[in-house]
Amino acid sequence: MILTTMRCNATLTNQSQGCPGAYSEAAAKKAYPSCETVPCEYFETAFQAVEKWAADRAVLPLENSLGGSIHRNYDLLLRHRLHIVGEVRLAVRHCLLANRGVKIENLRSAMSHPQALAQCEQTLTQLGIEHREAVDDTAGAAKQIAEENLQDTAAVASSLAAQLYGLDILAENIQDDADNVTRFMMLAREPIIPRTDKPFKTSIVFSLEEGPGQLFKALAVFALRKINLTKMESRPHKKRPLRVADDNSTPLKHFDYLFYVDFEASMADPNAQNALSNLKQEFATFLRVLGSYPTDVTEA
Questions:
Q1: How do 3-6 and 13-17 pair as beta strands?
Q2: C or N terminus of the chain, fewer CB within 10 Å?
């Protein structure tokens, strides 16, 4: 994957994780066609680049239709004070890339980002490629294979990576499901002004007191107002990893969780404002709005 950051001069500068030719770069170009993209190696580096004014936006993957959520980025959203200002959905079409002259039957190993390997697991097995090697990003795998002239290893990456690093495409569309879509988020130092004249989505994170039905009651603040939830993710609270429940028997230790929720409403909508006010006053021990931003309604 590539994290993209953007600078806002005549063009917008996007920070993305990985090497040129990765999917985050394509997502950044889809969201901001005239942006200048700047690759960086790690997810956290992209957050820091925007915070330190080295870039205007960071474009990072948040979830994939096959591989699920990118948990690292959920954790980083809480650690940093950036705001989600947009989303973009990108259809991911994986290719099997190798050095010139290498055939599929010569391959013993596939190298890529763990998410990409997971998205192609069945296909790689059917091709007889037994071993997997996880690296930081898809395009970085292609670059390494080209630089080291590996003859028994292929990269799972984009067709653009094949062009950039001079590799052959041995197979196209090798993802296990044709509908392989990654959702990316755009991050900025300041939030955008929410509107009600177009579809908006809002992302929040909150925690709750321990007790029967607490999550049910918390989510009811949205159901009662007919606000649709599109995503829910729970992550252990790193600052409070264990909660002790002391009843009349032996004390029990439970994980303390943070709940990440996306819902279809703008923070300019009084209905959404009332829902969050109800959640904060009645149920949540902690609540933070991560962003309220336009929904991506384009084709992936």
A1: antiparallel
A2: C
Identify the band that residue 178 occupies on the pLDDT scale cut at 50, 70 and 90. Answer: confident
Query: Going by C-beta distance under 8 Å and a sequence separation of 6 or more, which residues neighbour residue 90?
Result: 23, 26, 27, 30, 181, 182, 183, 184, 300
Does 200-294 match 95-172 at the fold level?
Answer: no
DSSP 154-168: EEEE-HHHHHHHT-E
pLDDT one-digit tens code per residue, 107-131: 999 999 998 999 999 999 999 999 9
Structure tokens at 297: 């309604």
Please pick, among 13, 138, 182, 202, the residue that the annotation labels catalytic. Answer: 182
3-91+181-188 CATH, one of 3.40.50.1110, 3.40.190.10, 3.40.50.10750, 3.40.50.300: 3.40.190.10
Rounded to a whole number, what is the largest CA-CA distance in the chain? 71
As beta bridge partners, residue 254 has: 243
Q: Is the pLDDT of residue 240 over 70?
A: no
Q: Tell me whether residue 153 is one of the annotated catalytic residues.
A: no
250 an active-site residue?
Answer: no
Its CATH class, for the domain covering 200-294, is alpha beta
Domain boundaries along the sequence of the chain: 3-91+181-188, 95-172, 200-294
Which residue's structure tokens are 């384009």? 298
CA-to-CA separations, 182 to 26, 113, 165, 259, in angstroms, rounded: 11, 14, 23, 21
Strand partners, 188: 83
Which CATH class for the 95-172 domain?
alpha beta
CB atoms within 10 A of CB 269: 19
List the catalytic residue out of 4, 13, 43, 184.
Answer: 184
